[in-house]
Amino acid sequence: MKRGYHDIGGLPGGPIERRERIMAFWERRMEAMRDCLARKRPPVMTVDEMRRAIESLGEQAYNALAFYERKAAAMRNVLIEKGVLTQSELDRRVTQVRARRAAAIRELPKQFDHTHDHENIKDDDPNPSDYDVISEAIYDSLLEQGILSADEIMRMIERMEGAGSATGARIVARAWLDPAFKQRLLTNGKAALAELGIEPLEAQLVVVENTASAHNVIVCTLCSCYPRSVLGPPPAWYVSKAYRSRVVKEPRTVLAEFGTRIPDRVQVRVHDSNADMRYMVLPLRPEATDGWSEKDLAALVTRDSLIGVAQALPADAAGQ
Q1: Is 36 a catalytic residue?
Q2: Rounded average pLDDT over 145-162
Q3: 209 pairs with which residues across the strands?
Q4: Catalytic (active site) residue 223
Q5: Which of 141, 223, 229, 305 does the annotation list as catalytic?
Q6: DSSP state letter for 313
Q7: 305 flagged as catalytic
């Protein structure tokens, strides 16, 4: 079977750029629209449909577009394919969005320099990505048709922003303190999280435990599958081609680049996420933390340790 151009796991890759990147508002809104559409009954657009559309963009477009641009292109293609939008309607709305933005810029006070620092203020960029504009045109159409409302999209954005490593840290700290909860977490992640009032939106959430003999690391070689509803958006390096291609073939080398050196006697297990199954790592509890509170233990858990490219922080890092 021929490997798809999107399937890069195990292929050669360059250095992993670890610079953090804040999602632009249009990217957050687009992700929220996708989640809202998938949660409709029946779904307007499923995760599988969007993933198929990403994988059908064609090699040139797939490689040329940025990560969230590919997602916007896929959303557009699925909605047109399913008759939710037509190309002519979308073109008309794109024209309206561009005109609306141009008018807003013209109306800015003359003393306001709207070109200042736009490298960092992506949402106000007078020359945005075409897919920024396309996603806003899709947003306008979905609202006008009554398929989604501005309130439910904003609630989903707020839910996404409420997720993050602090939620993962709380889960881990509870598991470190409560062996019975840990066993339930490892057996059925979603059911265990419900005990803490946490509702994962993913079909399955599998928690894998680091031990003295095994270290786990997570990747999605095909796309960007990640437990977003629990841990928030993935870091930019997680969705990069370099990480996705290299970590399955040379995990110890990749971990060493993150400053995590795993002894040869410890097995490294790489877990490849997919549209239905997402993973979270339960890191080893640091030594010298007996008697610590759940809050103090949670402070030792980092986002990278939940992915597996790092260990939990040592006890002395918390200043105990």
Answers
A1: no
A2: 95
A3: 282
A4: yes
A5: 223
A6: P
A7: no
